[in-house]
Structure to design on (273 residues):
């Protein structure tokens, strides 16, 4: 995985720009990542991002939309409003996690 | 010695803006055949693709209130279960096979059919019912899930899905 800079911070990213080291992420960096894809983080955004971070820490996999809804308790509809069009990938990007692996 | 570190690339999101559209015709009412359409519809919605599901013939069982939670799976005529075909006809075999498949589906975190359709709606998907099937089976809008948008005829469906990619299941 290549070393790259995001606004002066050095991090490891994959070919698409997703962070590859869980521990290189920070909430400040998340703000920057979100801004790069046109999202301003509000409290509801943070609720989803924090769930993803915590869930990944416990299970070693990025939660799918289904899981964020059923386990994280955030309605699917809200996720599509908060992170339009491609919520699962956008959330993973902002949370510094790999894209979800599961189909559903 | 200094090393040059390049700025990180930004993933290309919002490719859904290309106007990609997917129409899936669900014509089967078996539990196993309900899932391919649902999984693909859900995946496409997650990629920002506009999705229309059209339920016709046996696929009506997926959206009829009375049947949608009770779809069944039978090993009869399905050589991929790798069981002697004669076993499939034993009384109770369909119920047993259905139970097993339901458990397997749940074990990978995939919802049952009614919940899955709800998720598809919540993700912005569209559900349509076939006029001819409704007439044949004497079913009206009130017999179908409330989130089915309308009962439409074949030409309305063709019109609505102009330019869409199409899957027949």
């Amino acid at each position: 995985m290549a070393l790259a800079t995001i606004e002066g911070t050095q991090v490891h990213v994959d070919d698409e720009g997703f962070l590859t080291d869980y521990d290189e992420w920070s909430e400040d960096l998340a703000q920057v990542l979100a801004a790069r894809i046109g999202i301003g983080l509000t409290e509801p955004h943070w609720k989803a991002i924090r769930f993803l971070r915590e869930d990944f820490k416990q299970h070693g996999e990025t939660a799918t939309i289904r899981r964020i809804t059923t386990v994280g308790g955030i309605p699917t509809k809200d996720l599509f409003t908060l992170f339009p069009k491609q919520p699962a990938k956008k959330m993973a990007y902002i949370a510094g996690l790999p894209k979800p692996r599961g189909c559903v | 010695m200094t090393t040059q570190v390049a700025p990180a690339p930004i993933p290309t999101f919002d490719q859904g803006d290309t106007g990609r559209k997917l129409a899936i015709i669900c014509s089967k009412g078996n539990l196993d055949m309900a899932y391919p359409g649902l999984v693909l519809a859900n995946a496409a919605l997650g990629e920002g693709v506009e999705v229309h599901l059209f339920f016709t013939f046996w696929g009506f069982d997926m959206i009829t209130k009375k049947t949608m939670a009770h779809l069944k799976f039978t090993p009869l005529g399905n050589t991929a279960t790798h069981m002697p075909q004669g076993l499939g006809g034993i009384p109770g075999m369909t119920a047993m096979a259905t139970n097993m498949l339901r458990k397997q589906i749940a074990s990978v975190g995939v919802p049952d059919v009614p919940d899955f359709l709800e998720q598809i709606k919540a993700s912005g998907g569209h559900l349509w019912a076939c006029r001819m099937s409704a007439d044949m089976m004497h079913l009206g809008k009130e017999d179908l899930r409330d989130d089915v948008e309308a009962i439409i005829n074949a030409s309305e469906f063709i019109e609505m899905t102009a330019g869409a990619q199409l899957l027949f299941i």
User: Anything to note?
Assistant: Strands of chain B lie at 21-26, 50-55, 126-130, 150-152, 165-168. The radius of gyration of chain B is 20 Å. Residues 20-72+112-168 of chain B form a domain with the Hypothetical Protein Ychn; Chain: A, fold (CATH 3.40.1260.10).
